[in-house]
Amino acid sequence: MVVTQVPIGRVTRCSTRGFVGAVRLPEPDIPAFGGFCVVETQHGQARVIGLIYDLSIEDDELARQMASAGDLSREQLADAQTNRQVPLEFSALTVGFAREGTYHYTLPPQPPLTLAEVYPLDVNEVHSFTERFDFLPLIFGADRLPVDDLLAAALKQASLTYPEKQRLPYLVQAGRECARFMAADLNRLENLIRSLQT
To answer: CA dihedral in degrees (134, 32, 172, 95; nearest 10)?
Structure first.
């Protein structure tokens, strides 16, 4: 795999259902909720595709001391929030994998290894991977995740890979596909469709 992008982190914990990564990046480069990412597995024979569903700032002794210090100057805040690298942890749900140029919308045979580099999935791959909605069952089947918010964020990101005139038709089709999973809860479906429109 030829990679020209900067990694967003390294795997710290993993399973076939998902992985957790740690990173120290300045704020503009922090991975985003609902972003697609990719990490190699099986010694580069396959690539696991993840969907970021949680981001958290790790325990930071200096930040705790500054928070309890009372009033802080603008310079101190700028230094702590902008200049210092932030210890960040992100969690990704596995939504498929790629092997030999083909996408598979199931769990991978093996998880990535610890300390494997995690990259953002590039725009062309996001487009190719999300052309089919076969990744949706893995999201709907996730336990204890903000599934509806994650769906809306992922589908909106996928729609941005299309020319502007094709974005709304893509989201309409996505809504139809989601309706198959939400037929028993019309309020939930309505909320998702509203989220897709904003």
So the answer is: 10
Distance of CA 192 to CAs 37, 137, 143, 153, 174, Å? 23, 16, 18, 10, 10
Question: Are the CB atoms for 88 and 55 separated by under 8 Å?
Answer: yes
Q: Which two tokens stand for residue 198?
A: 């904003």
- Return the bridge partners of 51, or none: 36, 93
Give the closest residue to 155 by CA, choosing from 143, 139, 141, 165: 139
Residue with tokens 């709907």: 140
* 37 CB neighbour count, 10 Å cutoff: 21
Structure tokens at 25: 């990046």
* Domain map (residue ranges) of the chain: 9-197
- Which token pair is 190? 């309505």
In order along its 198 residues, the chain shows pLDDT tens digits of 444 578 888 999 999 999 999 887 655 566 889 999 999 998 889 999 999 999 987 666 665 555 666 676 677 666 655 555 567 889 999 999 999 999 999 999 999 999 999 999 999 999 999 999 999 999 999 989 999 999 999 999 999 999 999 999 999 999 999 999 998 898 999 999 999 888
Task: Give the pairing type, strands 102-104 and 117-120.
Answer: unpaired
Q: Which amino acid is at 18?
A: G
